[in-house]
């Protein structure tokens, strides 16, 4: 196990050089604005959680892996039936790629995702005795599990605070001028550095929910936005 973790660590380090911050360190005034932003988000929901349905670390990993470029709603619809028959790596492996495809065929990139889910299930059965390892290095060594998926899993299970950057988080972070990063890694790096520590675990969810329901891509709902007075982009959309 230690050897496997080391190999995974080497691989993760090799594929992901530390991103350079795209944002200068905030001054006092900016720090106060950022604090106020997250204080405000905290009033909307004390302990926000993923909208993906799961029953175990394994089903969470699978659900998050399936959710790439797909809505949580479409994934939940598929996994409701899938997890009823295959909620462990062993059962997933027994189901096989051909058996899995009909359950997830409504989700984008389903063929690649089916391959990855079966491959990762095989690794969990053969190398981890059917358990799901809950370290970033081990998770990122699984097929189809990138940094974002690992971050969502570790954050959701309260193992490691992490801000996974999806399209919503990326957009909201830019509009709120929390980051000018050109890549998700840069934005993640900026957010991790500036989000007040007590809010690190929940920031990911607040930003996603804000992007999903209020600060939407085409016509953000600035007139009802709870952080409008703290948003430098508001005037661009009014
Ligand atoms: S004011 Fe508008 S642009 Fe700014 S965060 Fe709110 S919805 Fe988004």
The Rg value, from CA coordinates, equals: 19 Å
Q: Can you tell me the residue ranges where pLDDT is under 50 for at least 5 consecutive residues?
A: 1-15
Distance between the termini: 56 Å
- Strand and helix order: HHHHHHHHHHHH
Overall mean pLDDT: 91
Q: Can you put this structure into words, describing what you see?
A:
The structure is a single chain. This protein has two domains: 28-49 and 161-236, Helix-hairpin-Helix base-excision DNA repair enzymes (C-terminal) (Endonuclease Iii, domain 2), CATH 1.10.1670; 57-131, Endonuclease III, domain 1 (Orthogonal Bundle). Mean pLDDT is 91; it is low at 1-15. The protein is elongated, with a radius of gyration of 19 Å. 37% of the residues are buried. It has helices spanning 2-15, 28-44, 57-66, 72-85, 89-104, 110-128, 136-140, 147-156, 167-175, 184-194, 200-213, 234-237. The chain is 60% helix and 0% strand. It has 238 residues and is mostly helical. The structure holds iron/sulfur cluster (SF4). Iron/sulfur cluster is lined by residues 175-176, 214-215, 220-222, 225, 227-228, 231, 233-234, 237.
Observed structural traits:
single chain, 238 residues, mainly alpha, Endonuclease Iii, domain 2, Endonuclease III, domain 1, 2 domains, 12 helices, disordered N terminus
Task: Give the SSE map.
Blueprint: H1 2-15, H2 28-44, H3 57-66, H4 72-85, H5 89-104, H6 110-128, H7 136-140, H8 147-156, H9 167-175, H10 184-194, H11 200-213, H12 234-237
Helix pairs in contact: 3-8, 4-5, 5-6, 9-11
Bound molecules: iron/sulfur cluster.
